[in-house]
Write a structure and sequence with these properties.
Layout (H helix, E strand, L loop, with lengths): L2 E2 L4 H11 L4 H25 L4 H19 L9 H15 L10 E5 L6 E4 L3 E5 H6 L3 H16 L2 H7 L3 H15 L3 H6 L3 H31 L5 H16 L7 H4 L4 H13 L8 H18 L2 H14 L4 H14 L2 H14 L4 H14 L2 H14 L4 H13 L3 H14 L4 H13 L3 H15 L2 H14 L5 H12 L2 E2 L1
Parallel strand pairs: 2-4
Antiparallel strand pairs: 1-5, 3-4
Helix pairs in contact: 1-2, 2-3, 2-8, 4-6, 4-14, 6-10, 6-11, 10-13, 11-13, 15-16, 16-17, 17-18, 18-19, 18-20, 19-20, 20-21, 21-22, 22-23, 23-24, 24-25
Amino acid sequence: MLNLIYNKNIMQRIRSLMKRTTTGTACAVCGLATCLVWLLGTAGCTYMHTRTPGDRISYEEKVGRQFSLEASTYFRWMDDPEVLDFVKDIGHRISAHVIGTPYEYRFYVIRDSTMNAFAVPGGYICFFAGLIAQAETVDGLAGVMAHEICHVEGNHFIRGQKKMDVANIASLAVTILAATLGGGQGAAAGVTLAQAAQQTASLHYSRQFEREADREGVELVQAAGFDPNGMVSVFKRFHALARLNAADLPPYFYTHPLPADRIYEVEGWAKAMRAVPRSKPQLEAQFELARITARLRTERFDALAAEQMAKVEKNPQSAQERFLLGYLHLKRGNLPLALEYLKKAFDMDRSLVEHYIYLARAYDLSGNLVRAKELLEMAYEMDPRNTLTEVFYGDLMAKGEGWMEALHHYQRAVILNPRSSVAHASLAKAYERIQERGKSYYELALSDKCAGRYLKAVYYFQKALKHLDKDGREAKLVQAELEWMGVEE
């Protein structure tokens, strides 16, 4: 029986609120708001009396970890490697340029069309698929990422909490979380005038923190090799959407106020920075793949495929547009169309490793294992550290040379990218096939943890312990994971 160390009152309050709500979004809003308010309210006194930076960091990590445990039950988390691994790559590229950071950053993607992103104390940063889908450039996406990282580095959430009482935090949290989940005006309508007055004061502090995150974010994103003007472009896009439809603001506005003077200020800072080289074609291609995958998971396939076909017809010489159309059909399972467009894109442009591995995937699923293997071997030569090449090669080996050979490739995929949910899931599959149940559950747990499904990860960690030698290395690793998550047996 699991015994979560955090207070059971969180779950009791969430269940009580869920009984009084009727929609899934409302349940998520109230549950997450209650969790956040309880964590900050009950631990706030602890924060007020911390005496060292180490105490503060420990407190923030506890808040972030326990909030993430609760949040894992309310959101649908994406584990598509084209999106999740890309966002993690961008996040770690940027966070690597924060000098002396005490945080271990964790990046997740929520499968929701909401245009938003948010940071939780302790280094937990979540992007919504809708924001990725609507981003126009990789530099813009990197700008939002840098901004959120600077919120964490500046301790903005906790510093804001010091200036508000618990009741004010409660009203503000409900409004922000409602906006985050797409219920901005509906939530605001349920707030009393007194609470609204408190929120005005709260947003004053929020704008102060936004300015800090903007200024530092511009410097950080430039240091990481991205164009800081991308941040300006994203902000202008949000502002334009707000002007076109003020009754339905992009949710980013509710958690990140965007007055016009703020945009002008960021634009000035960006122009003052030295120019950076254009992003590499490989990164741009990965961004387009992440963007269309985010759209695929949040929009209707028929409309998306028709839009992509129109782009192919408008730009018949574009290998990338044909590749993306073939990729959509591959994800949908339309193998003849996938092969047609992916092969044409491959013939037009062989400079990108993605053109090799996804055409290989299409051949694999169509039964042409020989051609699939040839393409994957060429992909190896181009990029020997590509995680998906190893995963796809492992899948191919499972159909031919057996699961032990597949296991080797999946293990290498995890070594190359230990943060990859799909790599751990594939390794779990191989361990299951060779009757290594304990290791299989352990890898499933790591896969869920990498994707943000923390409570599900706890479940599989517990199952792993039942099958592993209690004195073995793997069992000790599982116990360490459970201890980190705040779980007792």
